[in-house]
Write a structure and sequence with these properties.
The structure is a single chain. By secondary structure, the protein is α/β, with parallel strands linked by helices. It folds into two domains: about 1-35, no CATH class; about 40-210, Carbonic anhydrase (Beta-carbonic Anhydrase, Chain A, 3-Layer(aba) Sandwich), CATH 3.40.1050.10. Helices cover about 45% and strands about 15% of the residues. Helix 3 (about 50-55) links the parallel strand 1 (about 40-45) and strand 2. The longest helix has 20 residues, at about 150-170. The chain is globular, with a radius of gyration of 19 Å. The N and C termini lie far apart (about 40 Å).
Length: about 210
């Protein structure tokens, strides 16, 4: 990373410290003494344009965030090895007892494009292996959009991957228990960074529609 970029980050940290540690704001005093208690877990993409805290204007301690390539949730797998996403979901649901889980997808997702066009995007082995989680989404998208219309297929697959992640999320026993016993709320959202719209999945009819603000 260029030195100028590092200097920009350090300048930003200085502003953060002046606001939350040297100023009158007591947010971090409360968070450090009382611990965290976020109400919402967001599983979002690592894409630099889609930061959940920035999109929601959330403050420190409001969100528990997991970010990975294409905002995917793997299916539940007992003793399946190292699963950072699964561990984070478990901690948020079981330990923090979050009230909401949001799968946040977005337009122009590079992970989804790599799933659809691995040769074109030069997707490496780690990315290709990870994106196998979204193969059901790819299959459904191919039934909805012609393969020659790359942009439409890309978008359909982005939307379908949110459905796939919700299906996988519900395969975790502790998530299902939270849904049944304490009313855990699961949402699928899609940020269209080209238009600035946020779409929500209606699980009753299976369609996405723009959220009225």
């Amino acid at each position: 990373m260029p030195k100028r970029a590092i200097a920009r980050l350090m300048s930003g940290f200085r502003q953060f410290r002046e606001k939350f540690y040297l100023g009158d704001d007591t947010t971090y005093n409360k968070l450090s003494s009382g611990g965290q208690g976020p109400k919402t877990l967001i599983i979002g993409c690592s894409d630099s344009r889609v930061d959940p805290a920035i999109l929601s204007s959330a403050g420190p301690g409001e969100l528990f965030v997991v970010r990975n390539i294409a905002n995917l949730v793997p299916p539940y797998e007992h003793g399946g090895g190292s699963h950072g996403v699964s561990a984070a979901i478990e901690f948020a649901v079981v330990n923090l007892k979050v009230e909401n889980v949001i799968i946040l997808g977005h337009r122009q997702c590079g992970g989804i494009k790599a799933l659809l066009y691995p040769k074109e995007t030069q997707a490496g082995g780690f990315v290709q292996h990870w994106m196998k989680i979204a193969e059901p989404a790819k299959s459904r998208a191919l039934r909805k959009a012609p393969i020659e219309d790359q942009d439409a297929l890309w978008r359909h697959c982005e939307l379908e991957s949110i459905r796939t992640s919700i299906e996988n999320l519900r395969s975790f026993p502790f998530v299902e228990e939270a849904l049944q016993n304490r009313g855990l709320n699961v949402l699928g959202l899609y940020f269209d960074l080209e238009t600035g719209e946020m779409l929500e999945l209606n699980e009753k009819d299976g369609e996405f529609s723009a959220i009225a603000l």
